[in-house]
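I am still getting used to backbone structure tokens and would like to learn alongside you. Label the sequence line and the structure token line clearly, so we can match residues to local backbone shapes. Go ahead whenever you are ready, and we will take it from there:
>
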Amino acid sequence: MDNITHTIIGLGVAEIAMQWRMKDRSGLQSNLRPLYWLSSAVANNLPDLDVPWIKLLGGGRMEFLLQHRGYSHTLGAVLPIAIFTLLLCWAIAKKRQLEVNKKDWLWLGGLAIFGVLSHILADSWNSYGVHPFWPWQNRWYYGDFIFILEPWIWITLIPCLLFSSLPKWIRSFLFLLYVAIVGAAWKISYVPSPIALLLSIMALIGLATKSLPQSKRLSYSFSLLFVVLLGFAFVSTITKRELNSRFLAISPDNQHITLVISPLPANPFCWNYISVETSEKEFLLRSGIFAPFSDFYPVEACPIMIEGNRVAPLEGFGSGFPGELLSLGTFRGSLAELRLLDNNCYFAAFRHFARAPFWILHGDSVTIGDLRFDNGKSHGFSTIEIPAKSGPQCPQIPPWDLALPL
């Protein structure tokens, strides 16, 4: 997920913690509130420091793909990140001469630990995936039910922060973000008008919670968030079941390796998909859009989130099942080429990230990419040029499993 989402979740959880802390006989000193916000929000963002760290160490695109959502997004990193967060809180408390008792330190520590865990959990909701159980287990986990930047999460959680005791500049920023979400929903083509209308209505309802006590606003926001997540997860399950049955009917002799799906932003009625299959001699990636409720919302109404020509060489654009499924093209590669590329140390490392790998042979070089992120812009972040043969400086292969075992 994006860092605004992680921050909003962190601030919301801090508000819940402070509500519970105030129920204690000793209460909560008002001057300690910033430490609660800080502990939760910082811990919810620190795992993503792997991005500037990779750049600081001189890593390129390959290192970014292999190490982002890497060690810092695992259970092995929870305590180190939480301890760092607490040290930051201690330094600020000392500088401001704040008296923090044992109970408050326990709450701050709990927020720090929960913040890292909630970051990893939120990142597991989308198709990018996480491998959270390192060093005990190296398997990837993919939620496949939330877009990586989801407006519904903002619409549900911002109301419990708008009327809180957060500093005015933060609340002002959140209000502008709230308005911008609604405005963008009406302007961009990815969000259909009925969804934009529903987002607008829910935004107004969120503003109407101003008259409620903070405890009830928090109950409203997090209950609504749970409903949104549960709804998308339910539709994701239906979508995978329906797509699997269709692809089994289309190619019953193929081996169906995995199915990657992702909803459009704010829209549970349109899902991008990639079906990964192998035949006797071919490796196939079928991509397209699926409408699980086609009688109510046909696939022809779904916007296509592709800008121009994709890097991957695809064929068969526009075919499918009328009303339900629209093909955005199929990549066909030779299994023999894939096995040969597996001997290339660059491609072998790339396989620890790529869930839907494609390749283009150029003689002395190979263009490799992941169809999940091939959105039509020339050489997106997951597309790389590598030598056709292994060189002396092979990438360091991370310990987590292949993203696509074959």
Summary: Residues 238 and 309 are 30 Å apart (CA to CA). Residues 1-123 form one domain. The mean pLDDT is 92. Strands lie at 255-264, 267-278, 282-290, 320-321, 325-334, 357-361, 365-370, 384-387.
